[in-house]
Design goal:
Low-confidence stretches: 6-14, 21-26
CATH superfamily: Purple acid phosphatase-like, N-terminal
Number of strands: 7
Strand order of the largest sheet: 4-3-6-7
Largest sheet: 4 strands, antiparallel
Radius of gyration: 19 Å
Distance between the termini: 46 Å
Order of helices and strands: HEEEEEEE
CATH topology: Immunoglobulin-like
Structural class: mainly beta
Oligomer: single chain
Mean pLDDT: 82
Number of domains: 1
CATH class: Mainly Beta
Strand content: 35-45%
CATH architecture: Sandwich
Length: 125
């Protein structure tokens, strides 16, 4: 291993040859958001796509970067396309109907009380 400040900082984080790296099981699936970044002031929406094996009620929570909930969307996974993804188009509006500001927004998707995915969205006007 190298010597110096960088080696001291990153050594505990990087696996060494022969180390076993644990795999943490997760119920979370791939979430795709496109186009990202997007501009709701120009009439754009962002498509949030997620996979869920069976039809179920899905809740999409959108938070600002401080962790404040700005929108809750209740939808269903029954609208799956041939690629297996269900999609929801978000118009960049809060729960009160105002357009969000520039910034990064965090998306958490749940179904049946379990997290099924998360992603980040960037709004640039």
């Amino acid at each position: 291993m190298g010597v110096g400040l960088a080696a001291m900082i990153f050594s505990p984080l990087m696996p060494h040859p022969g180390d076993i790296t644990p795999v943490i099981p997760s119920d979370e699936a791939d979430v795709i958001s496109y186009p990202n970044p997007f501009n709701p002031d120009r009439g754009q929406t962002i498509e949030i796509s997620y996979k869920l094996a069976q039809d179920a009620e899905v809740k999409i929570y959108i938070f600002d970067i401080t962790g404040q909930l700005i929108r809750t969307i209740v939808t269903t996974s029954a609208n799956r396309a041939s690629d297996g993804y269900s999609r929801y188009a978000w118009d960049g509006k809060t729960g009160f109907g105002s357009t969000v500001d520039n910034g990064v927004y965090l998306v958490k998707i749940t179904s049946g009380g379990k997290n099924i995915g998360k992603t980040k969205i960037m709004v640039v006007k």
